Amino acid sequence: MSDARSTALKLLIKSQENKTYSNIALDEALKRSQLSAQDKKLTAALFYGVTERIITLDRIIAKYSKRPCDKLSSGIRGVLWLGLYQLKFMDGIPDNAAVDESVKLAKKDKNPAAAGFVNAVLRSFIRDEKALPEGKNELENLSIEYSCPIWLIEKWLREYSKEQTMSLLQSSVGQPPTTIRVNTTKITPDELVKRLSDEGIKAKKVSLLENCLSISNVASIEATDAFKQGLFHVQDIASQICCEALDAKNASLLLDVCSAPGGKAFTAAQIMKNGSVMAFDLHENRVRLIKGGAERLGLSNVTASVNNAKVYSDDMPKADRILCDVVCSGLGVIRRKPEIKYKSPEEMERLPEIQYDILSTSSRYLKKDGILIYSTCTVSRAENENVVQKFLKNNPDFEAVNVFDDKGGLFKTPFLTLTPKDLNSDGFFIAKLKRVK
Predict the structure, then answer these.
(1) CA 20 to 30 Å from 412, out of 32, 45, 117, 170?
(2) Is 114 helix (H, G, I), strand (E, B) or coil?
(3) With a cut of 50, which residues of the chain have pLDDT below it?
(4) Cα–Cα distance, 358 to 388 (Å, whole number)
(5) How many Å apart are CA 146 and CA 76, to the nearest integer?
(6) What residue ranges define each of the domains in the chain, with the CATH number in brackets?
């Protein structure tokens, strides 16, 4: 029995029970494991892949099983997920291997009939040429094909065109790109491209951002010497654009009120000539992440401490730049954290009030003529435009200004929504506000 499959199964069961973020659960498990590099790669592919396709896989199980999915034990349901995922989505694994390994996993279950049941479901799927089940209507078919809850598809159809919704669905599955921000205090982009090449990693410049590199052919970015030496940090294109929008080159003080794990604070600190970045988070363990990242990168102008962004502090200094990258539904990063789409709509409905409170409180720390960026990694209008418009209505001392005046195109707007289709980035929202009184 494959150790990779066994590890993936344990992870799937644990993540379903504890509702943990997939990337955190996987990283912790792989660090503790004794798996080979090849098995770690397979474990990650299986775990992420299944998590991404649970709705699809459950619909397949429902077609071939007399017992409803929620009546199956977590172990057997997980074994079926793994087997079906390999059969449908992993062309490099032969059908017989996928079935045989799944049956071996099932034999560890307490139910003696489990192995036969798993074998029957998987072989029935193969006999039907691995065709996806048919839904009752177009919405159900989209839900099955892209493993997306119907309520979320309906939400996107209300807020975007059908073409844009299809684009969001298509980009919600599959491997996301990996981009990094060059630490310009230590190395140039060209020098880093060469350093990474020496470690067997392909890196190329991203034309839109002079200090951004797209990388590939890397198993663990944190294991590279270049990472350990603080020559870069991992940061999506959209997040780097958000930092550029701060226009903080000549700023003396920037407050990053919801900072962890700190990527935007690190980029801003490198952009600023002689300025300081004060980074905050609600939890001490996440503040330690910021401190550790700043130390690795050698950024002495970044400090990090605990603070509740919703509560006004008399001790907070006035700043000429503020970044409010608020807690959000994360609908723009589903392909990185696929479990996000399985949250209930009720969980997301509570967010705009929290986001508005953070924005309102943070705005009180901004100097006259200062710039505040409100950003999210979601594509939900309720969390984006609606929050900012409400704030502007209640705060006449602020006005919305263009995110970029010099770039033109989709960037010449005060409210910038990036979908994965635009730049192959995360889905992201940026609003740029200026205190005028």
Answers:
(1) 170
(2) helix
(3) 1
(4) 11
(5) 23
(6) 3-127 (1.10.940.10), 138-171 (no CATH), 178-234 (3.30.70.1170), 237-435 (3.40.50.150)
**358's torsion region: left (phi>0), alpha (psi -120 to 50) or beta?**
alpha
328 is catalytic: no
Model confidence, pTM: 0.94
CA distance 254 to 282: 18
Task: Return the H-helix or E-strand segment holding 170.
Answer: helix 162-171
What are the helix (H) ranges across 305-344? none
Peptide bond preceding 396: is omega within 30 degrees of 0, i.e. cis? no
| Residue 433, φ and ψ in degrees, nearest 5 | -120, 145
Give the residue ranges of DSSP H helices in 225-364.
Answer: 225-228, 237-245, 263-271, 284-297, 345-349, 351-363
Q: In this structure, what token pair is assigned to residue 167?
A: 């684009």
pLDDT of residue 194: 98
Strands 253-256 and 319-325: parallel
Residue of 212, 258, 328, 377 marked catalytic: 377
